[in-house]
Amino acid sequence: MKKLFYLACSVFLISCDHQENKGQETAIDNNASFDRYKERFVEELWKMYPDWATSQGYHAYDSVLVIPGPAERARRLQFVKNNLDSLSHFPKSSLNSNNAIDLALIGNFLKSTEWGITTFKSYEWDPSMYNYGSVIGDILNNKQVHTDAKAATINAKLKNLETYFAAAKADISSPTKEHTDLAISQLKGTVSFLETSVKDSIKALGNELSYTYLQNLDKAVVSTNAFIKYLEGLRKEMEAVGGKIRSFRIGKELYDQKFAFDIQSGMKAEEVYEKALQRKDELHQEMAAIAKRLWPKYMGKAEQPADVKEMIKALIGTIAKTHVKREDFQKEIEREIPILTGFVKKKNLLYMDPSKPLVVRKEPEWMAGVAGASISSPGPYDKNGNTFYNVGSLAAYSPADAESYLREYNKYILQILNIHEAIPGHYAQLIYSNQSPSIIKTILGNGAMVEGWAVYAERMMLEEGWAKNTEINGSIEEDEMWLMYYKWHLRVVCNTILDYSVHVKGMTEDEALNLLMNEAFQEKAEAQGKWRRATLTQVQLCSYYTGFAEIFDFRESLKKKEGKAFDLKKFHEKFLSYGSAPVKYIKELMQ
Ligand code: ZN
Ligand code: ZN
Fold first, then answer.
1. How far apart are CA 473 and CA 570, in angstroms?
2. Is the pLDDT of residue 22 over 50?
3. Which of 19, 141, 473, 540 has the highest Cβ tally under 10 A?
4. CA of 348 to the centre of ligand 1 (A)
5. What digits encode the pLDDT tens for the residues 222-236?
6. Any idea where the domains of the chain sit in the sequence?
7. Percentage of the chain lying above the pLDDT 90 cut
8. Is 253 a residue whose pLDDT tops 70?
9. Which ligand lies nearest to the CA atom of residue 417 in the structure?
10. How confident is the model over 443-463, as a mean pLDDT?
């Protein structure tokens, strides 16, 4: 799911007011023609973006390699122009709410595409966008196609790599060090993938074609290695010139624009940042109060550190030692899911369709092998597919690494993870979004709403008494649950602070590590990984907290307005019924 929302970079800068034509409100019903337009739009979209199509399970253009450069950008700008024109013929008032949101999502996508080409221009500074490895992986992993057909497709796709890299070189005018390093390491991975998995699958053909294919594959490896060499050369030049290199920090102007397109929030980036700063202080106060209460239980007579943050950190480290055995990790997840479902039902929080159970499975091999947990939903072209809860295997971990992982996902955090990923988090949201199927919301859906809902679900479950539930903890361990929940929540709060500070306020690596380790109580390895992610991406780290804050604030304002009449279950069901739409549009439609 993460991948999906990553690709869907979208917003509607101009509020749709100007399109409303009051006189037509009841006169025109454009829904049927808008449905037809959407079908055409998606068809064209896939033709324009073959790699994206492949990743969504649409395989008609698998063999097409798009050559980057000015001609391609002109083609895309024309696509934007044509479709913005088409959209202008559908007044929002002539559409039902489902289509009105789709209209906004498509409009945002188009304007975001235009902005990417004319203003953001990552093709000039991010060489990692020329790594074609993941789409080859998507083609190879397509289970619906025979090996010989896949080999032919890959052969065709790689045929023009030399032209492709020549165009890439022409476009890369001001690379950042960080994105160049990323490109080099990723492309090396791609080469090794070509030389192992791809080569093996071609060899397995054993027919007369495989000889030609293998020769072409060798050429692809040579072209890619030459491009890597070129990037390594650029990297050396950068060291030599010193100060004149483009920074990975995008600065306030671009950040604000990207935030508007990617998050589609009712708030501005700076407001969210300020809100997160304040929230961090509140969380520290809550945590200090709990830590003082819990100290004797876990630390006995040991002296409490004078610095409250040190005290919190010491206590978290001790409580984290309560965790399942490595061989029981998946079993424990399987045990907790029905208990969570039962709680949601008992407390009347949300109706969940029992006919579509979640399938917990060991993470498939091709999912990168990074231990962790994720939800895979069936793609838009695989409607009857299962929804899986993928659980990373700890089998390959050294005892020390497994212990560190299990402390991270200790007894309490594991419950919060299950709430976030499954019930009533991502999985429950998916069930609702599937009830009003919209291919537009599947491919251009709003990541901040989806992540925000899962983060909101954590908070809401604890508010409704999950911390007092003894079915998993054995006895009431309310303070432990809340303390660990706050630690987990600090992560999303600090993701926002980090991202904004790094890109807009020039935060240094030392300052970032200090924030994450001393204020969010993270281990060094996690903090370093997060710093790196903040240097390579922009805005995405804000989506979790922004979505959460918007949903939470919206609920609180409705509660205030409706008083005793407010019904939590109805609120949740209504909220989710609009699918993966930006919270600001859902608010508009619910009020
Ligand atoms: Zn242990
Ligand atoms: Zn999530």
1. 29
2. no
3. 540
4. 36
5. 999 999 999 999 999
6. 11-120, 127-248, 258-590
7. 78
8. yes
9. 2
10. 97
